[in-house]
Amino acid sequence: MLKNYLKIAFRNIWKNKVFSAINIVGLSIGMAACIIIMLFVSYERSFDKTHTRNIYRLDEVQKFKGMTEPQNVALSMFPMGPMLKNDYPEIEDFCRINNSDKVLIHNKENKAELPHVFWADANFFTMFDYKLISGERSNVLKEPNTTVLTQKTAAKLFGNEYPIGKTITHYGNDTLALKVTGIMEDVPANSHLQFDAIFSFNTIIKPDFMENWGGNWLVTYLELSRNANISELEKKFPAFLQKYMKGDGWKEYELFLQPLTEIHSNSTNITHDYINFQKFDGSYTYIFSVIGIIVLIIACVNFMNLSTARSMGRAKEVGIRKAIGAQRFQLGAQFIGESVMLSFLALILAVLMVKLSLPYVSQFSQRALEFSIFSNPSLLLLVLVGALIIGIFSGLYPAVFLSAFEPIKVLKGTLRIGKSNLRSSLVVAQFSSAVFLIIATAFTLKQLQFMQDKDPGFVKDQVVVIPLDSKSQPKYDALKKELLSGSFVESVTGSGQRLGNNFHQTGVKFQGDGPAKEIASSQVIVDPDYLTLYKIKLIAGRNFKDSPADNSRTYIVNESLAKELLKDQPKQTMQSLIGKPFGFNGMDSLGTIVGVAKDFNFNSLHHKIETLCLFNQKNWGYSEMSVRIKGGDTKQAIASLQSVWNRQVPEKDFTYSFLDQHFAELYKSDRQVSEIVGILAGLAVLVSCLGLFGLASYSAERRIKEIGVRKVLGASVAGIVALLSSDFIRLVVISILIASPLAWWAVNSWLQDFAYRIEIQWWVFAAAGLLAVGIALLTISFQSIKAALVNPVKSLRSE
């Protein structure tokens, strides 16, 4: 019997090639989309899962006066870790980490610039389960001036030589000799902590650091006991802050704990998050999963629709089988078996699609996704069981429907199968999903384009950013002078931080006409040409002057800070701020405000513009140099910059980036989301159209004699095409009416994550609807026109 069922199944597949192909291709696309989404989601959720201890990151909520809104930050204060462990028994241990980027390292023969280096407490390797190849976990960072290198870094510096006990030299603010005490495996890609070497923190720790309450400059991780009550522990933190912080400063802070496994995927609302590799909004993984499942369900719906639509073609088979004694459950099993067979054929094609597309998906997403189905038994079992469930789910309704035919009516030819309301409902569900995704894609692309095109208040094009360190900072003036003398450079400036990043915050003091005002503000060190190079406009006062009198004694504030300073004096103009005493809290004497700059987005558009003061403090040093090059030959301009650098700073390699690329990187996650949603929307539309094509083919085939009669009576080709298309177009229009309000709600909710966002415009919904109707018409018209052009003599002859 099984052999007979298989023979019939293959015969039906071969007999109905078009419908079988539509089912197999549709199911394979849905399966492939689900598998790729599953791999992406699995990778995202695997971050930091290798660590066995109960680790949390200590984060702050800063509520400084003058801020537009409270700010979550990933930084904490140096004394917090040891004092929390001392005061609360549920906190078993702590580890503090500070990072340095682009660190220049030498040994006797080789040098290397390491992208990321951590300074960490001695217990780093006892808290985190990174694999050590050489060295004792509890001792490798115990002594000052010690370091643990990754395999990759060790190979760079020592080649095949055994590095343990060797010395490397770090060029920072002070030149340090560090002894190599351990080698570890390279950090896995699914770790939010990414580093090339770890230096012992006690190398740079000073005794007065323990008094540094209020200075937030490192990241603290806490190991908690397994039975710790997180919410109860967090309730104790206000009393902890009040105990150790002087005065009322503790009221400006809140502390909260973040599980290690959620740092990568649940930190989009946390700023100053400098140590968080490939930070991603975890909510998108749920969205992708839902959309992937929708695409798969649409493919399953196609199978159900086409199977029931072609039920008349198998009615006589069912009637004969029932007449000779076949039971209903046997017929049902046969049809479900055929569905499962199609599902496994689709799976084979889906696996091929995944294998071919995965390298491109990995490159696009910058994730090392792998699909080792045959070397991973659990993954193989999951995929096979998934295909079986899809086959059963897809074939269940057709099996019940077909096996219910009455043999007497079938064999007498009195069985009539009219329009299926369920079939119409499924088409509506399909296209509602597709239209929803089209609208969502349109708005995500519009928001992304808006962020790229919005005037940030400064000009970032043609700006080359060159990082500076302790070796190159003293050469800044010489570099600037020689660069400006070249023919490729328009202007040069220096700054303490890069535009597009979270600027550091500090307390500032202002003495107006009334009582002194103390608030918090973002701040950045700049040289006198900063506003000129970035073409930031002044709305009051003047720019900095390159003179000793201006250095460290003058400030330019932005509009937001100016408004905050004048909040209690609404009748005063911004011009009235010029010449007023202003400076940092804790300084012996205040400087003066010399200018008010028009607000500019120094952070990404996810965040509102905060208060900001710019000051000229050359002796504090700049962390980077910005060079605006003239339009023309960019390659030659970069070569000229490198030539100047090599003459002035021969001991350090020339590295650079373009500022507009840096800003593109800020929106990379948003761009990836929009592209992924767009791809899934395209797949949903494609699979829906495959089903619509199949239904249109069947409808045209079923009504071929009706079409012949209508043509004999004078019906035009256009009229017949309209007749065959009208039912389907009506269903698509209903889909648009259902999808539009749902899409509006979803898009509106998503846009709330952006401080600066587009308006939801009605014409996008109209355009998406017209696109859906156009795609449906294009899909249907091929079969409709083909049927309308058939010679009526031929269609009526075969009665």
Short recap of the structure:
With about 800 residues, this protein is of the alpha+beta class.
Keywords:
799 residues, alpha+beta, six-stranded mixed β-barrel, 24 strands
Describe the structure.
- With 799 residues, the protein is of the alpha+beta class.
- The protein folds into 3 domains: 2-42 and 283-450 and 671-797, no CATH class; 55-263, no CATH class; 470-651, no CATH class.
- Helix content is 47%, strand content 18%.
- Strands 4-5-10-7-9-8 form a 6-stranded mixed beta barrel. A 6-stranded mixed β-barrel has the order 16-17-22-19-21-20.
- Helix 8 (283-309) runs parallel beside helix 11 and helix 8 packs antiparallel against helix 13.
- The longest helix has 38 residues, at 328-365.
- The relative contact order is 0.11.
- The mean pLDDT is 85.
SSE blueprint:
Elements: H1 2-15, H2 17-45, E1 55-62, E2 71-73, E3 76-77, H3 80-87, E4 91-106, E5 111-120, H4 124-127, E6 132-134, E7 146-150, H5 151-158, E8 167-171, E9 175-184, E10 197-200, E11 216-224, H6 230-235, H7 237-244, E12 253-259, E13 270-271, H8 283-309, H9 315-323, H10 328-365, H11 377-403, H12 407-412, H13 421-453, E14 463-467, H14 476-485, E15 489-495, E16 505-510, E17 517-525, H15 530-534, E18 538-541, E19 554-558, H16 559-565, E20 581-584, E21 591-597, E22 612-615, E23 624-629, H17 634-648, E24 657-658, H18 659-666, H19 668-702, H20 704-712, H21 717-751, H22 762-788, H23 792-797
Helix pairs in contact: 1-10, 2-8, 2-10, 2-19, 8-11, 8-13, 8-19, 10-11, 13-19, 13-21, 13-22, 14-17, 19-22, 21-22
